[in-house]
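Quarterly update from the structural biology core.
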Amino acid sequence: MRIVDLLLQQKIPEAQSITTGQHVAAAAELMLAASTSALAVLQDDRLVGIFTSWDLIRCHTAFPSRKFDEIPVTHAMSTKPIVAAPDDSVAANIEIMLKARIGHLPVLQGSRVAHIVTLSEMVGPYLSELTAELRDLHGYLDDLQEARED
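Predicted structure, tokenized:
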């Protein structure tokens, strides 16, 4: 299964983004309004980071005496995000996300952040695909056993 197949199957919405000049309060408001747990952070329309709900929690802990509208999103975002392309394998990206201990993966179309997929959005369909393959293999083995007995 490719990421593009997942995007179509799951109807994952377009990525929401914020610019480097904005503050954490604006990011939190956008995340709430868009019902999303991650934002692409852009500078001159180029991905420079990702801001997630986890970054929001970490920001609260790292800057306990500052208001969110005083903290630049660049001070709280995760830099150097791992990214995927639409034709990439879901299985390979699940493995990458697990190894990197990340929950969100920006999907680039060219240099544009088209979507941000979560680990849970990928795991469910992938497990369904594996389950179907396993069912097919069991059927094949049953057919072989019957043929052998004949």
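The longest strand covers residues 46-52.
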